[in-house]
Amino acid sequence: MIGVFGGSGFYSLIEKHETKEVSTPFGTPSSPLNFGDIYGKKVYFMARHGDGHALPPHKIPYKANLWAMKQCGVKRILAPAAVGSLKHDIKPGTFVIPDQLINFTSGRDDTYYGGMNELPDLSQVTHVSMAEPYCPKLSDILGETFKELDMPFRMGGTIIVIQGPRFATKAESGFYQKHGDVINMTQYPECVLARELEMCYANISLVTDYDAGLGIHRAVSADEVLRVFKENNEKLKQIILTAIGKVDYDDCKCMHALEGARF
Ligand SMILES: [Zn+2]
After folding, report:
1. Is 209 assigned a catalytic role?
2. Domain hosting residue 137, numbered range
3. Is residue 85 part of a domain?
4. What residues does the ion ligand 1 have nearby, CB within 5 Å?
5. Which residue among 6, 25, 117, 151 is least enclosed by CB atoms within 10 Å?
6. What percentage of the chain reaches a pLDDT higher than 70?
7. Average pLDDT value for residue range 165-194
8. 210, 166 in Cβ contact below 8 A?
């Protein structure tokens, strides 16, 4: 089973779907799950920011969202997101499949393994590897999908994740430009929590703006993010639907992330 998190400007995927309300030990997810069949595969879709974009990035119930997917039997997650560019040559409208992440968020509830005694499986001290934060198999499938559809994309890159909801200052953005390629507010801890639950997770970043302007461009605004996202929404859906049809593997190292992760 495959899960898809829709980000800013992306609120539906499956045409003929049923809806399922899920409750979790970590609270209510952002929205009910829509599920249906795509190319004979069962797919679950959730709007990350809730229906009508009610939740800011720092208030998203990430743990409930990932747990809900896991509870439904999801093993692989495709997670599109709107991002800002930190490089002049990564223009708005470009798609990037990142392979690294740097977390600059703070205070987010970012682990299931915090000694939760009422769920014995989660009470053990657990250190999952995040050396490769994104699933290489799913990311490769996304890359093949872009090639098949003849759509330009960039394979690999580092995504900087900031707390938000405000955008970065020019000075902060200058600092991030030295360390990353694109910038976003929701990839952390979503990506980490998927790993802790042994699910494959890959991101498709849609570049909507030049962050704080990179010195020569206009600085990002929420209007601009939504405008560029809307322009590219159909392309993004086509990529995700095609990629779902290409997911053909049963096993991956992400699905064994807890092996050797415990003392
Ligand atoms: Zn994987």
Report:
1. yes
2. 2-256
3. yes
4. 135, 137, 200, 252, 254
5. 117
6. 98
7. 97
8. no
